[in-house]
């Protein structure tokens, strides 16, 4: 038998991936897809921005986790199930009271709470499917309650108990701020539905890597959370709003952009790793923001236009559009959430996507184990 050396080398030589794994497909998924050239993304074949306009958060959650939008009877049962799971036990509340100090970041408190809740948890690969699903629902339901409680404790306020009968978005806003108006709850729900999942972003991929080892749900979520805390990922909404504060009057925008470009600094809230046209989530939230017609909203609209024009003039051929973080900060500000709660609010939605991805990855039963290219010295 003849051996083709060239073919053998082709089979055994590692592929060299681009920086950041850009455009590298690492697995198959049925959860959703992001089409950057089209400016479109979906959850299990359903246009995600259409879902954000038309369905409740719980219905989108059911779709992502179970593969289909619920029938009316299923929807009611699912709301009851996750509503009951949203209630926080006394031990976790005591833990938060003992660890949260003035100024504590709610996401850091979530990290502590998730670690405690995961004590003694069995690996997902050792659990039957129904117990894996139960773990996914438990953590996703508890996350907004933990974040709202941590936020209030950091401000010297008492936590507000969950209301199992309330809608997920409305109850989160009530627990965080102490009150909720129907229009604000609807605006926040639109944002939450639109940010449940978004392809293999850094936090989702981090969670799936850990899930591929068969680990427990808490560990998977802690890994995803660690990636999410980075300012280039989940930490971006507050920085985008801070840019509006820096600019002030929209007439200052072009000078501000010139200075950023001269310093080779990132313009937070603009550009995206995947989209090469308008971010559909940004366009959706721009419409939500316009309902408020406030000074902040009018400023954001003017500044967005000025930034796009300035970038086009200063860097011809390089189109940067507002991404989801730009209008996310505006909408969250309008519904009464402070900047310290922008990333946590993003997290209350994304945890649903993380848990769905974790379940899908564990079911595949294959550990993720890529290679690295060594570029250091070779010692003789």
TrEMBL record:
<dbReference type="Pfam" id="PF00285">
    <property type="entry name" value="Citrate_synt"/>
</dbReference>
<protein>
    <recommendedName>
        <fullName>Citrate synthase</fullName>
    </recommendedName>
</protein>
<dbReference type="GO" id="GO:0006099">
    <property type="term" value="P:tricarboxylic acid cycle"/>
</dbReference>
<feature type="active site">
    <location>
        <position position="272"/>
    </location>
</feature>
<comment type="pathway">
    <text>Carbohydrate metabolism; tricarboxylic acid cycle.</text>
</comment>
<feature type="active site">
    <location>
        <position position="325"/>
    </location>
</feature>
<keyword id="KW-0808">Transferase</keyword>
<dbReference type="GO" id="GO:0005829">
    <property type="term" value="C:cytosol"/>
</dbReference>
<dbReference type="InterPro" id="IPR019810">
    <property type="entry name" value="Citrate_synthase_AS"/>
</dbReference>
<dbReference type="InterPro" id="IPR002020">
    <property type="entry name" value="Citrate_synthase"/>
</dbReference>
<dbReference type="InterPro" id="IPR036969">
    <property type="entry name" value="Citrate_synthase_sf"/>
</dbReference>
<dbReference type="InterPro" id="IPR024176">
    <property type="entry name" value="Citrate_synthase_bac-typ"/>
</dbReference>
<dbReference type="GO" id="GO:0036440">
    <property type="term" value="F:citrate synthase activity"/>
</dbReference>
<dbReference type="GO" id="GO:0005975">
    <property type="term" value="P:carbohydrate metabolic process"/>
</dbReference>
<comment type="similarity">
    <text>Belongs to the citrate synthase family.</text>
</comment>
<dbReference type="InterPro" id="IPR016143">
    <property type="entry name" value="Citrate_synth-like_sm_a-sub"/>
</dbReference>
<dbReference type="InterPro" id="IPR016142">
    <property type="entry name" value="Citrate_synth-like_lrg_a-sub"/>
</dbReference>
